[in-house]
Design a protein that fits this description.
This protein has about 400 residues and is α/β, with parallel strands linked by helices. The protein folds into 2 domains: about 100 residues, 3-Layer(aba) Sandwich (D-Maltodextrin-Binding Protein, domain 2), CATH 3.40.190.10; about 230 residues, no CATH class. About 60% of the residues lie in helices and about 5% in strands. The protein contains 14 helices and 5 strands. The protein has a 5-stranded mixed β-sheet with strand order 2-1-3-4-5, with helices on both faces. The longest helix has about 40 residues.
């Protein structure tokens, strides 16, 4: 064999020892499916929502709304249209308070929904078109044309918080911190568990403790790392905010854009959520034999899915989907604190969501302990997903 052939053979062996096409295909397929699912959800391909029924108290000649809306005009009083919204006959009532430009209009709806922003944008376009058609486009008229509708939204659901900017900042901050915690525990757990498995320290540790004790200690230790990272992020963000506001802008420090009233509950949900995510990640990591190239690595990103969906559904905190997810054991730790930041939530609902999260936490912990025990003692070959599910569902600890 020539030197060139030997070089090619060595190069092929070096490449193929870390390249497993089946695992590669599985990992990439999972990522593509997640991306496709987010795309289809965002573009409403998988489902077609019912058009929103909107009623106006005046005739809006020439207004053509998108297919997402069904608009009709009824010469009724404001109270009558509001009652129709309360009863669920219509989704929104448009009350025009002035006939001259710039027009002032109030939208009455039951809660915060994403379609309200689209409706406001289309009404602004309609108002500008009417202004352009009725004016000679002089300097004064052009200035008038640029004035949008004086748009006001009144939510009939008293749970909606008035300080929407404060609520939005708080909700975004909660989700970002949660994502930081999950990313931190992902990296730490993956390195720790796969390293211990490769170094064959399992036998020594099993001689002095059982698998459940081992995994619980690892989960708590990694939770502390995640909490430290989240706390550091909070202080860094607050210092940066104070620097910009006080030093650069010369203003007094004002933290009113954040709603600190949800902080105690957020801490509780974070502790439960990070524990649950860490347990799941530890179970998957224990089943990985080759950390350099394994298709199961993609499954360790599953705990991020509720956080991603939370960002996508933040503009509809009153929707049925958010309500259901805020009670579901595996997603409540994300959606309930997000919902609390955006709207007022009764105390009993928060308690139910927290109890649901604790139940989900216990279930995931028990399943993870069984998978961790079997995965850490299995060398040379990664278990398939059927075997992993069998471990998870086993009644033996």
């Amino acid at each position: 064999m020539s030197r060139l052939n030997q070089t090619i053979t060595v190069a092929k062996w070096e490449f193929m020892q870390f390249f497993k096409w089946k695992q590669e295909l599985i990992a990439k397929s999972i990522m593509l499916l997640l991306a496709l699912g987010m795309y289809l959800w965002h573009n409403q391909v998988l489902y077609q929502p019912e058009p929103q029924k909107i009623v106006s108290n005046i005739e809006l000649t020439g207004l053509q709304l998108s297919d997402d809306f069904v608009l009709r005009s009824e010469a009724k009083s404001k109270d009558a249209l509001v009652e129709a919204v309360k009863s669920g006959e219509i989704d929104g009532a448009l009350i025009f308070n002035s006939a001259t430009l710039p027009q002032q209009v109030t939208l009455y709806s039951q809660g915060i929904m994403s379609w309200q922003t689209d409706l406001q944008a289309q009404l602004n376009d309609y108002a500008r078109s009417n202004a352009a058609a009725s004016l000679n486009l002089g300097a004064e008229q052009l200035a008038l044309l640029e004035q949008p509708l004086q748009f006001e939204t009144n939510y009939l659901d008293e749970a909606i918080k008035d300080a929407m900017q404060q609520s939005s900042f708080t909700a975004n901050g909660l989700l970002i911190l949660m994502a930081i915690g999950v990313f931190m525990t992902f990296g730490q757990v993956f390195v720790a568990i796969t390293g211990e498995k490769q170094q064959r320290v399992t036998e020594q540790l099993y001689s002095c403790m059982d698998a459940k004790t081992w995994i619980e200690g690892k989960i708590i230790g990694q939770m502390l790392h995640a909490i430290k990272a989240m706390t550091t992020t909070i202080f860094t963000a607050l210092l940066g905010f104070a620097f910009v506001q006080v030093i650069l802008k010369g203003q007094s420090l004002d933290l009113s854009i954040f709603d600190f009233s949800v902080l105690p509950w957020f801490i509780l949900f974070v502790l439960v959520g990070i524990y649950m995510c860490t347990a799941f990640i530890a179970a998957i990591a224990a089943a990985i034999d080759d950390p350099n190239h394994s298709g199961k690595t993609a499954f360790m990103m599953i705990p991020l899915i509720p956080i991603i969906v939370g960002f996508m559904m933040m503009d509809s905190p009153s929707s049925l989907a958010v309500t259901v997810l805020s009670y579901f054991p595996l997603t409540a730790f994300v959606f309930m604190p997000m919902k609390m930041a955006l709207i007022e939530v009764p105390f009993w609902q928060v308690v139910i969501a927290f109890v649901s999260s604790v139940i989900g936490c216990v279930l995931i912990r028990n399943m993870a302990a069984r998978m961790f025990k079997m995965g850490m003692t299995m060398y040379g070959k990664e278990p398939d997903f059927k075997t992993m599910m069998k471990w998870a569902m086993s009644v033996r600890s």
